[in-house]
Amino acid sequence: MNVVSPGMIFTPACNLICMAMTVSRGFQNMTPFGRLGGVDEVATALLFLASDESRFVAGEALFLDGGIMAV
């Protein structure tokens, strides 16, 4: 079993939570990429794990957080 752990992803719900630009900028500044993730980036990772291309991937935690865990 694999697990996907997204960080702060820009969605309509995130937009409501991060209405104050300082909150959104705070999350963006925490990532080496300097931005929030997109739903398309999460979808791409999920599609990979659901495909035959990942048939030998097992027991992995895939962090989609723009590099926060690496810092």
UniProtKB/TrEMBL annotation:
InterPro entries per UniProt: NAD(P)-bd_dom_sf, SDR_DHRS6-like, SDR_fam
Segment forming the signal sequence: none
GO MF, any single term: oxidoreductase activity
Keywords linked to the UniProt accession: Oxidoreductase
A Pfam family: adh_short_C2
Keyword Oxidoreductase: yes
Keyword Oxidoreductase applies: yes
Family, as annotated: Belongs to the short-chain dehydrogenases/reductases (SDR) family.
Protein name per its UniProtKB record: SDR family oxidoreductase
Organism, as annotated: Leclercia adecarboxylata
Taxonomic classification: Bacteria, Pseudomonadati, Pseudomonadota, Gammaproteobacteria, Enterobacterales
